[in-house]
Every structure is written in C-alpha cells, then in structure tokens.
Amino acid sequence: MMRRRSDRGAGAAAPVAAMLGLAAAAAGQSPTPPAPPQSAPILIHGATIHTASADASVPPRIDDGWLLVRDGRIEAIGAAADRPETDPSWEMVDATGMHVCPGFHAMDTQLGLVETMAVRATDDRRETGDVTPEIVPAVAINPDSDLIPVARSGGILLASVVPTGGLVPGWCSTVRLDGWTPEDLAIEQRSGLVVNWPMMTPVRASWMRRSEREQQERLERRLETLEDLFESAAVWRDLGEDRPADRRREEVARTLDGTRPLLVSCGSAAQIEAAIAFAARHGVKIAIVGGPGALECADLLAERGVPVVVDGVHRLPRRRHDRPGEPFELAGRLHAAGIPVAIAAMEEPAHERNLPHHAAAAAAHGLPPDAALAAVTRVPAEIVGIADRYGSLQPGRSATLLVLDGPPLEVATTPTAAFIDGRRIDLSNRHTRQRDKYLEKYRRLGLVEE
Amino acid sequence: MPMPSTAARRLRPRTGIGGCRGVPIAALAATVAATSVRAQSPPPADLHPSKDEVWAIVGADAVIRPGERLSDAVIVIRDGVILAVGSDADEVVPPLGARVVDATGLVAYPGLVEMRLEIDASEAAGEASREGGAHWNPRIVPQLDAARLALPGDSVRRNLRELGFTVAAVHPSHGILRGRTATWSLAETEPRRLGGRPMMSAAFEHGGSWDRASYPGAFVGAVALLRQTLQDAQWHAIARAQWREDPEGLETPIAAAALEALEPVVAGETPILLATDSELELLEAAELAAEFDLPLVAGGSGDEYRRLAEVAAAGVPVVVPLDFPETPRADSPWEASELTLRELLAWEQAPTNPRRLLDAGVEVALTTHGFEDRGDLPRRIRETYDAGLDEDLVLAAFTTTPARLLGIDSIVGTIEAGKRADLVLVDGDLFGKDREIREVWIGGARHRIETPPTFALAGDAELTLPDGTARRMSIDPARGKVEVVPVAPAPDPEVADPAVEPDDEDADDEATAPAAAPRPIRATSATFVGDTLSMRLPGAAFDREGVLRVAAVLIEGVLHGTAETEDGELIRFTATAIEEDESDGTPENDAAAAVEHPEERGEAEAPGSDQGAGEQLVSADDAEKVVAGAGVGETPLWERPLPVPFGAFGRLEPGSAERVLFRGATLWTCGPQGIVENGDLLVADGRIAYAGPRREFRLDEGMRLVELDGRHVTPGLIDCHSHTGLFGGVNEWTSNATAEVRMADALDPDDIDWYRQLAGGLTVANQLHGSANPIGGQNSVVKLRWGEPRAAMRFAEATPAIKFALGENVVRPRNRYPETRMGVAAFLDDRFEAAKRWRAEQDAYAALPADERARTAPPRPDLQLETLAEILAGERLIHCHSYRQDEILMLMRLAERHGFTIGTLQHVLEGYKIAEVIAEHGAGASSFSDWWAYKMEVMDAIADNGAIMDRVGVLVSFNSDSDEHARRMNTEAAKAMRHGDLSPERALALVTINPARQLGIDHRVGSLEPGKDADFAIWTASPLSSMARCEETWIDGIRRFSVQEDAELSRLVERERRRLLAKALDGGSSRGGRAETPEEAPAAGGLRARGMLGRMLFEQEEAMLDYARRGLDPLQSVQGGCGLEWTAEGVR
Predict the structure, then answer these.
(1) Nearest one of A136, A153, A75 to A415, comparing CA atoms
(2) B486 pLDDT band (50/70/90 cuts)?
(3) Largest Cα–Cα distance of chain A, in whole Å?
(4) What is the CA radius of gyration of chain B?
(5) What is the DSSP letter of B163?
(6) Phi-psi region for residue B991, left (φ > 0), alpha (ψ -120 to 50) or beta?
(7) In the prediction, which pLDDT does B149 show?
C-alpha cells in the first residue's frame, strides 16, 4: 500500500505546481514558483524541537515544544507548558508527533552550477586556470535548476556553493534555496575563499606518470604561487586609494582582514599542517574541508580552533589498511578531540538530499546526535559567517527550518514542511510530479489503488 | 641421452685421451649438434682456428652440479664438449698436448641459463600479421619463430655473459600468442641455436601500445581471445587431419598459418610459456591451460607467494623474476602513514618468493627478466639468501631446472662429461659480493671477462733510490694500489697534497703521537699493464716537491722505475720483493694471496659467509630484534605465515563452519515467516538448521550459544550490480559485442573492498561487465568468502548470465556501429539471428551419421555466438543496463520475438513508466535507490521508481554499482520506505530475497529458512535505520567479519606496520635506492590499472590528482559509472 507522505500532516499541497503542470519539466527548468513572504505569524506546536543551538539558554532538544515565527524570524520558542496565547490570524501548524529542526546546510556543493554533468553546456562548475579568485558562484546559480527543489524536498534549505578545480578556484557563495533571482538566493556572495591545497607527498598510484621529483617540483611551484598571491594582495591593499585596479588581488585582499575564511580542501595531515601555517602567516581565518587526515593533527586543529568540514561520511577508507568503519568514525573522533565539526555530503549536486544520511552515519558511529545535527546546520553557518542569522533555532534567528515525520537524520524520515525565512516552501519537485503522473497511469489501469 | 652418474664414472678405468671414458666423440658431437641458422660461418679473420684443440682447466673448485663440489678439479674440453671432469682422486689429469688453464683459487660453475630473454619482435609481428594466413587479430602471431628472428644482439649477449650466462631462451616481445621460442648460446662469435624443446611464448596482453581501438582492451578480452584462438586451432587441426585423410572429397581447410603454428600447442607437444603480471593472472593461466590440457610454464610476476597454496596446487613450473621492491622511503610521519601494510610487507617478503615456491613443491627457474639493469642480479640474489635461498638452490634454478624446462638438460646445466663446455670461472662465490667473474666458456669457446693483473710483484718491496736510500713500498695490483713509506715524516696533513690520503689512523691521534712514524704515501692512478706500472706519486715519497710521474717495468723480479719531477729531473729507482716465509714463490699465487685469499673463501660453503653478505646479516639481525620486539619471534622470514589476502585484514587460516544457536534476535527472515521477534537461529554444517520463534533446543556438544539480546538478524545482503574485485578493466569496449568475455577470469579476491562490503553485511555480489558496448561480457556471481582461495569466491549455482547495455554509453564511441538507439536495436537483432544460424549448423553437424561426420569438417567454434545461443535456449540470462523506457521496451520486444525472457533490467530508471509491461514480460528490475541527473537519459529518474515497479508487480532489487554503496545496501533499501512507502519487510527484500531470485540463487540464499546457506548479518538496530551498525557477517556458517575481530586485526595491522616501518628506516640506507612505484596506489582498493584502462587513466591524471588530493581513490567504481568514469570528456 503506497501512501504519499508529503501530502500528510503539515505537508503543503502543491496547487501552483499542479496548475503549471509539467510543461517546464522536460526543459530542466523547475516550474515551482518561489514562496511568497510570510504574511501572518506561524505557530508550530506539538513537535520535538531540535534547536542545534550553541546558546546555553536554549536547550538542544525540547519535547512537545512550540515555535513562533513572525516576519521571517523566530520570535519565541518553548515547551508546551508555556505556550503563548494564540491569535486567530496566526497560522497554526500542528506538528504533534513530529520533529522540527533547522534546515540542512549543504557545504562544499555545486548545486545550481550544474544540471547534467554529462552535458557540457549545463556545467558551470569549473573555470579555466589555476588561480581564479574572481570567480563568484552567486552570479551564476540558476534559481530554476530542477536539482534545487529535489534537494529542498530532502530538507536542504541552505547551500554554500563552491567552484571546483585549480589551486584557488574562487569564492564560496552561501545561498538560500528559494527565490526568483540569484540575488534573491544570495545570503553572502563571498562567504569564504576556496583553496585546493596541493598534495604534500608524492602520489605513487598506478595512474601517476610524473616522477616523485617532478611532483615535488610542481608542489614547490604551486606553494610559491599561493605565497605570492597573498603577499602581493597585502601589498596592494596597503597602497590605499592610489592602488591600481587589480581584480585578483582585490579579491584575495578581502580575506586579509580575517573576516572571510579560507576554505581549504585537504586530504592529509601534511596538507592541513601546511595550510594552517600558511593562514597563520598571512593572518587569515581558516577552515579545513575534507580532512581524512585531520585526526593525525587533531591537537593542532583543536588548539587553534580550526573547524573541519568532514567531506563525505559515506566514503571509502583512504588506505588499504584502514578499518572499514574509519570514515564513519572520523567526525565523532574529531568532535571528541574538541574540534568544531561540520559534515558535507561530497555527493553530486543532484544527490545533496542525502546529506542528513551522512550525518546519521556519523551519529551511528560515535558522533553525539545533537552534534551530528549541528554538523549539518549550525556549524556550517558558523564557518561561513552567518551563524548570527541561520543554523540554529532560537529567538532572533531566521525561521529557516523543517518539520519532519521522524528523527531529522534518519534515512526513512521525510520533511513534511519547510520554511525559509518564514516562507513556506513548496516541497513538490520534478520527481513528485513524475511520480504522480505515472501513478495516474496505473490507477487508470487498475493496477494501484486510490 | 642419459649421462652416467659421477659415482659410476669414478669406478671406471681411465681410458683414451685425457680420461675421456668411452663416450664416443662422434656421439657427443651429435648430441650437441647445434643447428646454426646462419648456415655459413664467416671467413676467418686470419688463420683458421685449430678445430681439435684440447683444453684442460685445472686447479679450480668445480661445482659440477648444484650441491656437488669437486676440489682441485680437472675439466677436459675438446671440440666444445666436456670430455672429462674429475679430481686427482679420480685420476683425471690433463691429457698430453692439452692447453692448460690454471684456475687455481677460482671456482668453476656450470654456465647459467636465462629462460626469458625478450627480443623486440614488433616489426616481425607486424609483418606476420599482414601475411596470408595471418590471424585477424594482430596480437595473434604464433607463426613467428624466434629461431628465424634476429638472435640476441652483441651487447645483450655480452651483458649476460658477464653475469655467467651461457644460454638464453629467446621470446618474441609482442602480442598474446607471440611465437615459438628459440634457445641460443651466448658466445661472442658464432652463437648457436641449441635444440631442445621450443615453447610457445604468450602473454595476456591488452590495451597498451597497440592501436587504441584494437581488441582486446581489457584483461578479460585477452583471456577470451586466447581461449577462442585455442579452440580455433583445435578445430583447424581436425579439419586438416580430415583433409589429409581424404584430400579429394573435402574442401581445403582455410589457409591459416597462425592456427597451423598452434597445432603442436593444442596437441600438448609444445608447452606454452605464458607471461603473467600477478599471481592472479598465473592462476588464470593455469585454469586456461587445464581447460585445454596444455603443458604450461608460467612466466612469473614475483607475487606468487601471496597465494602460494593456490599457485602450488596449480602444479605449474614458474619462471621467477627477482626485481623485488626497493626499500620504501618515508621521511615524515605523513609519508609513512600513506604506506600500506601490503606495500611494506611486499618489500619484506618478496625476496622469500622463490624459497616459498620451492618449499611448496613448485618447480622454479629464475630469470633476469624484469630488471632494468641486469647488473642488479648479484645484489638481488644475495637478498634471496637472507630470504631462504642458498647458492645451490639459486644455481639449480639458473641451470638444471631451466635446462630441463627447455629440453636441453642432456647438454647443458651441469659440468659433466658429454655436455657442452658451458662454464663459468669465478674468483669468489658466483653471486658473492666483490666476486669477479673471470672467464665464461661457451661451447668450449673461452671468453675472458675480467682478467686480473698479471703483474708479478705484489706485496711489500724494498725500493732503492740512486742516493742509496731505501724505502718500503707496497704493491697491490689487484686493487691498483701502490704506497711508498717516505724516510722523513709525512708533511703536515693540512698542507699535504690532496692526493695523499691519510691511512686509517685518525689525524688527531697523529698530532698527539710523539715521534710519529712516517705515514705511507699513496700513489694515484696506479695502472698495471702486463709487466708495466705507471702512476702519479706525491713527491714527498722521494723527498721532492710536487708530484712525480712514474713509469716502471718488472724484469725478472726487479722493478726498474723512472720518476720525473715537476722540473724535469729523472730519478731512476729499483725495487725488489721482500721475501717472506709463506710465499711459495710462484708469482700468480703471490698476487692472489695478496688480494683476497680466495682459497679460504672457496672453502667457506655457507652462503653469506663473505664479507658483504656478512654485513647484511648483521643488519638483518638488528631488524630481527625489532621483529622480536613485535612478537614475531625467530621464525625465518620465509616460514612466517602470510595472510590471505596479502596485507591488512587477511587471514592466516580460513575460518571454519561453526554450530551456533543465536538466541533472542529479531529475525528478518525475508521468507514466509516475515519478521520474528525474539527468535532463534540455529546454524549447523554451513546451513540454517532452524529460523523462527524461540524454541527449547538441547545444546549438544560443540554447539555454541550466542545471546543476541534484541539485536537484528537479516539474510546476507545481495548486490545485483557490482564492479568490485575485477582486475585489468571491467569494460572490453574495443568491440560492440564481446559475449565471449568472462568476468570470472578477472576475479580479484584481494580487493580490499570485499572486506569493507562484508563489514556492511554484504555476502553476494553480481560482478558485471561495464556498459560500453551493447553486448558485454559474461557475469560472475561471487560470495564474499574473504580469505579463501580465488576459486572459492565463485557462487557456482547462480544462473549464467551476461551484461548487455543500451543508451548513451553504447552509442558514445563515434564512427562505430551502432551510434543510435535504432542501430542498437538492429544490431542486437542481427546478432541473435547469427547465433541461431550458428546453433543450427552445430546441431546439423552433430546429427550427421558418424561416418559422414568423420568426413565432414566441423563448423567453426565461436564463443560469442555460442554464448548468445545459450540466451536463445533460455540457459543464460541477460542483465541489461538500460535507462529510458523506449530502449527497455525495445529490448523486451526483441527478446519476445526471439522467444526468451530478459533476466533483469539494470538501472531501469524509467521502469516506472512501463512497469506493467516489465511485469508482464517477466523481467526483473534492479535499480538505484535514488540516483539521477548525471546524464540526459536519467533526467527522468525518480526515487519512487523501485517502489512503483514493486507495486505494479515487478520483481525489484536495489543495487550499488559502486564500491562504496555496496557497504550499506541496508539503508539504500530503506529509501524505498521514504520514496514510495514500502513496508520495512518489503524494503529489505530489495537487497535480499529479490536479488537472489533475479540471480537464480534463491534456493540457496536470500532468506533465513532451514536448509539455506547460513549467510546472514547481525545488526545493532533495525537494519533499515541509519543508526544500525553491522556487527557480524556470516557466510556458509563461517564468521567472515565481526566488529570485534576487525578491531583485533586492526591492532595487528598497526603493529606490523610499525615493525616494518622501523625496519625500513633501519635498512633504508643499506639497501639504498628510492622506493619504486608500488604495485598499487596507496589509496586504491586493490584495482590494478593496466593496459588500455591504465592509459585512459593517465590521460586523466590531472582530474585524478584532484581526487587524490582530497584523500579519495579515483579508481573506485561509482554509481552510474559502469567503469566509464574516466573518458575523453573528463570525469563522468
């Protein structure tokens, strides 16, 4: 017996989508219109609320709790006992037996930059060149991408989108996943500068043609390039008003005041150590992305408070002699070592909806459940500098949150309602439309009930 | 020709010339009748050499055969043949008129035999493949004959001679069937071809240097081509035999030089020497040889020790290379952390390979094949001495064994009367450090390799200057060393000529020593030529400034010298030896004694007794302490048990089936009982004896009770689409139909991903060919019997099947039919028609009356059409990669037209659009849980696909198509609860009983029911929860994985790694050199990319580096990829 869960409980129907029909589907253009601004206060009640808050005054979990949203922000939050008086004009969301948590935040993703990787014309992930700090994804994210509503239906409401390839491929742009234009989407156009740290030790794999010496020389050249880039950006910045226009140095200089982090993609401890030293020398903030080797230099990371984005919990162990469970346990061990841990899915953009399952796998292998939730909500927001607005449920923060029919990270759990800045999001998507269309076929054939 | 044993010969009276005992010389000459390809000899450079010259080599210790040593031997040689060998005791003496070679102090060994000398045959192979009667595939050139190719060049022969080789078997270098080998002597002039038994040289060549588009591109294709060609050769041989019987009545067999050349091979007369790149290829070669009943000699890879028992069981002689890995280098902890246990252990254990093979009863010949520099040979041999070999074993593996394998053991391999005079005279042990090979005799032709100085004044001499002063002089011609002790104290070292090297005393001691004795002054560039000596001598030796130029000549024991000062003064001097008691006065012995005392060394039999090896032993001892510290103990290196698979998480012993009662678990039976809470599972003899509600069992002896306390037990998970554990490429994409290819040929039981997947509860995988061509290769269903022999991985009961593919992947290669979905439809139809015709011909032939059949040429075998005919007959399933509804419909309709049913539609991501047709046709559907959007043809893929098909009545499974997803098929199944609302029970069936049905193994696995195999997994929570962890995985009632054992193994792994890293650090300098490219990527899961795949990968190096930089393995198979990830367009 098949039921359509998204139509149950607090789930939103998709009248507009139905109206627009499927015409746009074939063109890879989502027909789902963005949600209108919140018009009336919303009270979500009866749910188990997972706040993901770091604030000592907000408990991590409230059973049978409520949450009041006004003008896109959380006004108040609490337990059943002190539920506020309601007004008839309020929208009431009965979430009894359900769960509420902040919307998931996809880190290290290319959502919106690519539609179908096999079709070059739809692929804007990578610019030519090794050092392109002028690349800003926020100007090219396609708000009509069919991939976005699919991700949203899996609870992904925020995304930190990064370009790929090269040594400095460009900026991370942090966006909300609903809006008419890329400008509507953007929360921070430049929330961190991406650095793909080079291999510090030679690769000796079967596919590697270059000798160890060649690799060593290439490494040294690339490290010099990085050093040069940041040094000359500092000089340029200090020239003041007289400085010549220089797009690349200007972009790099934006990181030098220590507000926007370098998001450094690293695999090994050797890379992480070198990257931390580099950031310290240039006085810039740093977060590590990837980090299978992070455990080997956990002390350094903890001591300096450098956060780690564990890029993919569902990944194969790096070395033949690693235990099968090692990738699952990494996040838990880093957390235990006192390192702020975020989790990214490291999946294709089309599969970002699996992000909570990565966090769940970490939770099954030692990461405390609250920390696992924070790893896909609050900690990403902290890393890209938007934690004052997003990433946790507490008064004053954006009402960017999910109502779910089960524990937030479970693989069988479905988000039944989603809000971005208080706006109720349509959870229909290309998949639900195709599903409904063909279920109709089988209903007509008498092969399914309903 | 049988030769009399040494003992027998000793009893015989001495007769004839110089002790030649009754063996007629004419007969000997016939034995050695070497056929020269170049029929004419060149005109002699000057006078004709004396033909019947008799030589006697006297005074040497002769190792006449491995393990048998004669001291003070006499070896009599005439006409290239050994006439007699013996010692004084045998009363063998040099015959009158013989030229005597005084080899006192030297050791004579039989000449060495190189079994695998490749010569470049690319041109000849190219020509042969264009001639009439050539095979269609340019890699099949068995008609080439090394005897008619160029013989090994002057420099190669010289290079081998200098190492003591006298004979080499030459192999053509190109192709899969490469041609007949030829055995050549390595003489400098007039090298001769020896008779014996040629072999057919072969290799599993694929991809690589050949045209990219040429078949085969993958290892599986190479095996298939070899198999097809051997069948063709059998067929052709029958046809030819029939035609010979009745040349009038039959059509002439096709002209096929290649197939004719294979006749002696398929008849079992000519052995095949099949070069292998790994122990797995060797096992495959042995299976193939057994299939065709061919005598096989394996060209080894050096990795045989990794699966020793299986290699030994194959019963195949192995030609073993010695190019062991160099010491792994890791200067920082981060570098060290990248070194896998497998790499480290290979470094330590590879040198034990020959000894382990010998101990296991394998016939071992050694080879220099694989060396970049053959000069490495002595060093590598000495490494085997530390690893269990000794000189006798090495000698046998380089003489008697290869001679026997090459069928020339009646004429070479030992030093005995009647054999060719192929021998080596060595100062020292044949492979000892600082040994000098003096002479190599080949067919009686003497080759001087290193001639020691004949300068007859050695040791201390008294030098007298014109002024009457005398100085002590010491001369060492062998080392080119001359020293003079001056009368006056040596000048201050700081202002001394740089050429003056202080002796071994320390300069400080010198300074503080009162009334220091004069220090010897050493000459530079002392050169001895015949009786002359020239050198530069610091003037201080003669109380002069600057440097002296010195010339001297030795005349009747007196050295007459002339020294020229910088200002032109000539100083004449003389020197004579200071007589010492022990000197017997013969100049040669004096020289020898001054050098090394080789006699003493000759007596020391134990290998490693010379100084060099001694040093190595010391360092090995140091390493041993580390070993002992790690608890490995004193077991010799070559006797230490090795884990299978080799490296981390391998097993020292395979597990055994237990009798266990698991009590108190939630049983997800996936059978009629559904989910049983608080159930009992009884396992005995590898089968499930009981699964159901709790029952009172009487625990008999030998039965273990395990309380599961509410844990969950499911059947072992089954992956219906895997590319894990296949080496040499998963795609034979060079052709649009490759039904002859068998994935089982490339099964890699060492792939670490098997272990990782076991850790996720997986027990069965369907290994599929890639999706690059419409008709792919035959599948291989395996059980994840980690740690067992390769053959034991196979799940033989599965229904045979084949991979087909449709859509974007197969039409991607341009300019190859088919390029469209329409062409694919027509192409498949055509192939099945061809298979029908082929089957009809076969049946018609089989139906002929016996006498007529005997006169009728059989239809040609065709593995490809035979496989397709099996599909038509309903004996083989199709697992078809497909996405869009149109192509899925096309395939089912095509099958219906030809009267068969599709086994499974793989991926089938638009299956939800035509679920009712699939259900009606009866095909299974094996889908991803939720993948989409990576290609145009999957834009309409939806996560509800599986659930909708299930609901409409299709038999549905979820598969991984990924090394990584296969570790967590349980949560993949759980997605069908979210997308499509399947019940938990129905969702779990997607990865248990449903795929079991699709693969035809549901009578054995897929559910927890009595009588089925005890394949199951134990979970900490509901298997459909993200929070569930797999605690144990069992197959056939044997526990193959447990969290607890995993932790123990992991500790052992780390301890072993630490031990080996310490050893590498310690031994790094003594062995020297940097680490060579390891046999696998540190990050790789065991896949060895070679051939075409390797080349494709190289072209994507930059993209792959980006993966590696993030600590990922670029070679892992991923969903939707089907082995096509690395293409011209870049990452998929």
Answers:
(1) A153
(2) confident
(3) 77
(4) 37
(5) T
(6) alpha
(7) 86
- List Cβ neighbours of A426 (8 Å cut-off, separation of 6 or more): A12, A14, A16, A17, A32, A33, A35, A149
CA dihedral for A410, A416, A420, A422, sign (positive or negative)? negative
The interface predicted TM-score of the complex, written ipTM, equals 0.93
Q: What is the pTM of this model?
A: 0.87
d(CA A34, CA A16): 10
Bridge pairing between strands B524-529 and B521-522? unpaired
Is B655:B785 a contact under the CB 8 Å cutoff? no
B 729-758 residues with CB < 8 A to A: 752-753, 755-756
What are the CA-CA distances from residue B293 to residues B141, B288, B290, B405 (Å)? 21, 8, 5, 18
Rounded CA-CA distance A180/A186 in Å is 11
Domain ranges of chain A: 31-103+391-450, 105-387
Identity at B206, one-letter amino acid code: H
Q: How far apart are CA A175 and CA B50, in angstroms?
A: 96
According to CATH, what is the number of the domain A31-103+391-450? Answer: 2.30.40.10
Residue B1024 and residue A412: Cβ atoms within 8 Å?
yes
Q: Each residue of B382-440: pLDDT tens digit? A: 999 999 999 999 999 999 999 999 999 999 999 999 999 999 999 999 999 889 999 99
- How many other CB atoms sit within 10 Å of the CB of residue A3? 10
Q: Which residues of chain A neighbour B1098 with C-beta distances below 8 Å?
A: 207, 209
The one-letter code for the residue type at B1068 is G
Tens-place pLDDT, residues B37-48: 334 556 656 665
Asked if pLDDT for residue A16 goes beyond 90, the answer is no
Does B1067 lie at the interface with A, CB-CB under 8 angstroms?
no
The enclosing H or E element of B987 equals helix B984-989
Chain B residue numbers touching A431 (CB-CB < 8 A) = 932, 942-944, 979
Query: What phi and psi values does residue B475 have, to the nearest 5 degrees?
Result: -125, 130
Taking phi first (over 0 means left), then psi (-120 to 50 degrees means alpha), and beta for anything else, what does residue B709 get? left
For B950-968, what is the mean pLDDT? 97
φ, ψ of residue B973 in degrees (nearest 5): -60, -35
How far apart CA B399 and CA B113 sit, in angstroms, is: 5
What is the three-state SS of B1071-1110? HCCCCCCCCCCCCCCCCCCCHHHHHHHHHCHHHHHHHHHC
Q: Which positions ≥6 away from B1053 have C-beta within 8 Å?
A: A321, B341, B648, B649
Query: In CATH, which of 3.20.20.140, 3.55.30.10, 3.90.950.10, 3.40.50.2300 is domain A105-387?
Result: 3.20.20.140
Per CB-CB distance under 8 Å, the chain B contacts of A313 are none
CA B122, CA B487: separation in Å to the nearest integer? Answer: 68
Which H helix or E strand runs over B235?
A: helix B219-245
C-alpha distance from residue B529 to each of B454, B523, B554, B564 (Å): 8, 16, 11, 20
Q: How many CB atoms neighbour CB A390 within 10 A?
A: 26
| Three-state secondary structure call for residue B664 | strand
Q: 3-state DSSP call for residue B322?
A: coil
Q: Under DSSP, is residue A174 helix (H, G, I), strand (E, B) or coil? A: strand
Please, how many CA atoms are within 13 Å of residue B770, restricted to the half-sphere of its CB? 29
Rounded to whole angstroms, the Cα distance separating B944 from A434 reads: 9
Interface check A81 vs B, CB under 8 A: no
- Interface contact B1075, partner A, CB < 8 A: yes
Q: Given the structure tokens 């391999």, which residue do they identify? A: B413
Q: How far apart are the first and last CA of chain B?
A: 64
Q: With H, G, I as helix, E, B as strand and everything else as coil, classify residue B581.
A: coil
C-alpha–C-alpha distance, residues A219 and B558, integer Å: 65
